[in-house]
Design brief:
Blueprint lengths: L5 E2 L17 E8 L7 H10 L3 H15 L26 E2 L2 E6 L3 E7 L3 E10 L2 E10 L2 H23 L6
Antiparallel strand pairs: 1-2, 2-7, 3-4, 4-5, 5-6, 6-7
Length: 169
């Protein structure tokens, strides 16, 4: 049975909500936490480890396309070291396409800061709920162009990624 994933405001108590000022793009999706006993890092790693193949294909297509305009290939959503335990991650480590910026008992914040935009992603857990939120600050015209394409796709992909969360260990 697939969980009900809802688009929602960023959770007010989350640290990522503090970064909303001046944001050009923000979204948040919530569902009943299928594994409340897991830490935010454990939940995130389980989620991206179960990324459907079609999403990996879209990411590969994105990477090929953006190289044509001089943007970096981010690689795969999955961690580069799949056997690395959640407890071994430290602020500054790479976790798939993102860098771990903050790690707290209820939330982790990952991000990528490039010349065209700053992306932050939060996985926040509280009160039996799990939120996956994204905040983007565009820095220049290329960032606006990029988000005009990626934003709508992002809003289709993230709920589908979360919908498969119950299968995560």
């Amino acid at each position: 049975m697939r969980p009900r994933v809802q688009a929602t405001a960023l959770p007010a108590a989350s640290r990522i909500a503090r970064t909303l000022a001046g944001a050009d793009f923000a979204d948040s999706y919530c569902l009943a936490d299928p594994h409340p006993e897991l830490s935010p890092m454990q939940s995130y790693l389980a989620l991206v480890a179960n990324t459907p193949d079609w999403m990996h294909g879209l990411m590969a297509l994105r990477n090929r396309a953006v190289r044509l305009v001089g943007l970096k290939d981010l690689g795969s959503l999955s961690p580069h070291e799949p056997s690395k335990p959640a407890e071994a991650y430290r602020v500054g480590d790479r976790v798939g396409i993102f860098r771990l910026n903050e790690l707290h008992p209820k939330e982790l914040i990952l991000g990528d800061d490039d010349r065209h935009l700053r992306v932050q992603v939060s996985l926040y857990k509280a009160e039996g709920q799990l939120w996956l939120s994204t905040v983007v600050h565009e820095k220049q015209a290329l960032g606006r162009l990029y988000m005009s394409v990626v934003g709508p796709v992002h809003r289709l992909i993230v709920p589908r990624l979360l919908a498969q969360a119950p299968r995560c260990p």
